[in-house]
Amino acid sequence: MHLVSLNLTDLFLSLWRGTLECEAPDSRESWDWAVLQGETWKSHGKRVAAAKPYLPGTFDRPPHNPAEKISSGYKAWEYLTYVFALGPGVFLGVLPDKYWTHFCKLVVAVRLIHQRSITSDQLRTAHTLIIEFIEEFEILYCQRKVERLHFCRQSLHALLHLAPEAVRVGPQAYYTQWTMERTIGNLGEEIKQPSKPFANLSQRGCRRSQVNALKAIIPDLEPDSSVLPHNAIDLGGVFILLRARDSCAREIDGEAGGAIQKYFQTHAPDQFDPDSWPRVIRWARLRLPNGQVVRSAWKEKSKPPLGVRMSRNVKLQGKRQLSFAEVQFFFHVSIMGHNTTLVLLYQGNAGFEVREAKDISSVVAMVPLDDEDTGRYFVTEKMGLEVAYMSGMEEEIGNDE
C-alpha cells in the first residue's frame, strides 16, 4: 500500500527534515518539528541501521541508514519497516513529545488497517485515530496558514477512506499492491532476451499460465511441501519442531533448571525429583503456523552478533495475558503419558518460565530503545506478515546443525 509506505513517509520525513518548500511569510525557524538535521539526522540514521541484527529474517529487507541512502533507491519495504515498525522507538526522544504522540496515532491506525482480519471495534478505533490524527495535523503543522496549504497532501485525505472502504471491500491485505508487484518482479526476473523484453515477458506469462493449468489438472506435478526435514517432529496445528538438537539428555541447572523443576512439580508431581536437576534434550527451532521459524538463544548466541538476524524473541498468547519473552530452547517430554513440547523462556526481571511451545504466536523484534546500554527495549512486529504468508512466502527451514 504505497499510500502508507511511500506517500505518507515522504511527507513526514520531509517535514521533520525541514526540506519542504517554505513560502513567505512563513519561516523554517518556526518549524519546531524540523529536528532531523545536521548531527541529529546522522546519529538517527546510524541508529536505524544498527537495528538490523535485532530484526528477524521474516522482516525481509532491513532499512539502510536513511541519512545515507534515503535518496538513492530506498525501497517501499524499508520505508514501511523504518517508519511504521521502528518509528515509535527511534523517533522517541528525537521528535518533540506532541509530534511523537501525534505520529503514534497514525502508526496504531495503520497497523490495525494492515491486518488480514479486523474486528468492528478495531475498525472503529482505527477510524477514530485517523480523524484525530488529521485534525491534529492541521493544528500542529498547518496552523491555519495559507502558506502551509501545500502540507495538506492528497494522501492525508485518503486516510479517511481506509476504514469505510474496509467495511465495503475488506481489509487492505486483500487488495494491496504488494502481490501484484511481486508477480511483476518474478516475471521480470525471468526475462532472458533484453533485445525483445516485451515479447519475452508475454511468453513467460503464457508459459506460467500453462504450468499453473497443468498443476491444477495433475496435482502430483506440484512438489510435496508437506515432507518434513530430517528428524523434525510434527506437533500438530502446523507447528513443527526442528533441529538442531542435543545428541543426548543434558542436565539443566541454576535458575533455568529451577524453572523446569517448578513446571514438573505443578503439572507432573509423580515425575518431580527435588534432589536432582532435570535432564532434557534441547531443540533449537520451531516452525509456526504463520510461516515464521522461532530460533533459540542456545544456538543464536553461539554466532557472531553481527551475523545474526535475531529470531528468538516471541509473542506469547496463551490462556494468560499477552506477553513477550526470549526463547532459550525447546524440549520434547512425556508428562502423565502424553507427549508435549515445552519451551524455556527468559523474561528479564521475571526470570525463567516454562510454557507450552504452542503458546507462541509470532516472532517479534526486540530493539534497544537507545544507543546506551540501558537494558531498555521496544517490541515491534512485522507489518504485512499475513499478506506475505497469503502469497506463499515462508521462511526457509534450512539446517541449523
UniProtKB/TrEMBL annotation:
Signal peptide position in this chain?
Answer: 1-22
Q: What is this protein called?
A: Fungal-type protein kinase domain-containing protein
Q: What are the record keywords, sorted?
A: Signal
Source organism: Piloderma croceum (strain F 1598)
Highest taxon of source: Eukaryota
